[in-house]
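[job 4471] stage=fold_predict status=RUNNING
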Amino acid sequence: MILEYCKVAKAQGCKLIKKVKLFFLLCAFVLLCLCASPSQSSAEAPKRIISLSPSTTEILFAAGLGNKIVGVTTFCDYPEEAKKISKIGGMSNPSLEAVVSLKPDIVIITTDGNPQAFEEKLRSMGIKTYVFRARTIPELPDGIRKMGMALHENEKFNALASDIETAIEQIKSEKKARREKILFIIWPEPLVVAGPGTEVDDAINILGAVNIAGNAKIEYPKYSMEEILRQSPDIIFIGEGKGMESVSSGLLTRLSTLKAVKNGKVFFVSDHLYRLGPRVIKGIEELEMYLKR
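[job 4471] inference complete, writing C-alpha cells
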C-alpha cells in the first residue's frame, strides 16, 4: 500500500513539474510577443506630434522632426514650413476637439503659455503629453535634451543642445569688459520693455551688459519717459515689427536728449530673442554685433 502511494505521488509530482514548466514557457512566450510588438514598445519614437508653442515647434524643426509634426498653434510661424501644418488654436486656448482629431502620439506643452488644465484633460483622455519646462536661455540646452528623451530621439536633441551650449560658451569667452546700459523696447506706444526673466534679459547678461529694466517686478513692464531719461541707457534696441520704425519715431523724438539717440545708438533688431529656441543664439550674436559698433 505504501509502495502504491509512492507511485501515485511520484506520478502526480511529475505532472505538477510539467505544469509548472508549461506555465513558465507560456509566460516567456507572452513576454517575448509584448517586447517584439511595435505598438507596445515604450522606446518607440512618436510618429505624430502636436506642438502647443512656437518655441517647441522651432526646437522640433531644428532637431529634424518637422515631418512628424501634425498640429501647431496659430502663433507657430517659423520656420516657413510650420505655417502649412494644421492649426489647433492659440497657446492659451487650444481646441481639444482639434487636438483629438489629429490622433497624436504625444502633445508637447510648455509651462509658459499653455493652460495646465488642458494638459490634465489630455492625460485623463489617455493622450500622452510632455511638458517643456525650460524658461531661460541657460536652461534651454537641458530642456532640449529632456525633450529628446521623451521623444526617444536622444542623439538628435543632444547634438542640438550641444551646439547651443558651445555657441553660448564661445560668446562668453569673447566678451570684453563692458557695462553698457541697455534698454530693449518691445513696443513704443504704450511703452513696454523687456524686463527680468525674458530671453532678452538673459542675452544682455550673457554679453556682460546691463539691462536697465532688469530689476523690474514683471517680465514686460510699462516704462515712463521720465524713468528712461533718469536711467539714460547707452544703447536702445527696438524689436522689429510691421511699421515699427514709424510707430517708434514719436518716442525717439521725445527721447532726443538721450546720449543713445544723440550718438546714433538706436538699433532695430530681429525677433530672434522673442522665443526660447535655437534662434536665440542668432539674437545674442546680433546684439553683440551692435555692441561692438
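[job 4471] summary: The two ends are 109 Å apart (CA to CA).
[job 4471] exit 0
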